[in-house]
Amino acid sequence: MEKDRKMERRPLPGRLNLAGRPWASSSDRSTSSGGSVASNSSIATSVYRQVSTYSNYNSLTQHLGQSSKNGPRPVLLTDASHRPRTHGSVGILLVGIGGANGTTLLSGILANRHGLKWRGPRGEHMSANYFGCITQLDERGDHGGVGYRNKVKGLADASMAAVGGWDIRPSKLGDALLDQQILDYDMVKQLKDEMNKTKVFRGYYDERFIGTSQHATATHVLTEKEAPNAGEALKSIRADIRYFKWRNGVVGHTTVIWSASVEPNSEFCVEGGGLETAQQLLESIEMSEEERGGPLPPSLVYATAAILEGCSFVNGGSQNTLCGGLADLARRQLGVYCLGTDFKAGQTKFKTAAVEYIRTMGLTPKVIASSNHLGNNDMHNLATADEAAKAKLRVKHDIFKAWQEDIDHKVSIMYTPMINDEKRDFVEYTSLGFLGQTHTMVTYTRASDSLAL
């Protein structure tokens, strides 16, 4: 089926139309079919059609399994005894929360919230801080530095953020943090039990968009019956977002962050790929895979769900999720943004600064050869997914594209399990100077890949 085939322009049940108002769809008020539910994540999925877009979740409808000739009887669930776990000033939802980025983020917020103290690897005294988080630091020095907390009014306190998310692996978050061996053991043991209580929603999974090394552990996923296509997966994700906001008392802005494994680039997300407008994006999600001409990446479904629920979306992967249609949809939702192409451990940003330094000296950069290796799960995924690796390299190459210079930029990435999360990066810069003589400069970076985002 041609990608530009004419589709009937019908409203999407329970979603915002392009003017930003909820569709008045009868399916939003009807009772969904299905059996009893036993977990928060399945409650969220089952109540999608009972909850309007702007519901405050003071009440939910869940099926308790009573039989009737019309199926399970819907029962209104009021939870007057529920008290949110945080003040809920803002919400953070991570796709891939069980990975190293997600668990270290959650542990850092909890450590700061509790004012945690612990012993470091050499027995030194350590305490929680937000070093490296410029929105959580005050200005420093005579010229102010880069801290913004006391400079920009209205910045949220990260310690009061509600944190949740999705993962395709069933591991509890505290156990996952311990297994990852990134943070100090004395700190992890103080947070492990609390983190294990964090509810993790089941993830939307398509094995075509992830390396084969991840397939065996992908057991905490929406079933084929629950999410047979992108449209149904979108509904489930939107319901999860609503449930998270209600459960945690979030009254401020919520941001959804893609922190899962890097996906291959999608042919639909490139310029001219058929997803140039919000309308095209929404219609494409409603199509079957045969009608569309191929699968949509899970990251795009999560991003669309986030924006339709009034949340912002940050792409922490290097795939091309941010298509024109997604940007158009975000523009139509006041106060919502979508941005990002890959998390950075610092060496890529330093690479751009180093080249600027070379150019300010009047030299002409000609060759940039980079080698980096680490042994975390992200690199394991790249080692078994050639197309995802290409997406990662595209981002690294694109940082010099705007200069329109003939730079031979080579990048080598290697999976080395023993190194774990401590990334090593070696870069050699070769430039031409006066009378064509060469100038060579070398940089070396070591950083915890999951902490220096």
Defining key terms:
6-stranded parallel sheet, 14 strands, 12 helices, globular, 453 residues
Please characterize this protein's 3D structure:
By secondary structure, the protein is an alpha/beta fold. The protein contains twelve helices and 14 strands. It has helices spanning 40-46, 100-113, 173-180, 185-196, 230-248, 278-286, 289-292, 298-308, 324-332, 347-360, 377-383, 386-398, and strands at residues 59-63, 74-78, 91-95, 117-119, 125-127, 162-167, 200-202, 254-258, 312-315, 338-339, 364-374, 408-415, 422-432, 438-448. The strands form four sheets. A six-stranded parallel beta sheet has the order 7-6-3-8-9-10. A four-stranded mixed beta sheet has the order 12-11-13-14. Strands 1-2 form a two-stranded antiparallel ribbon.
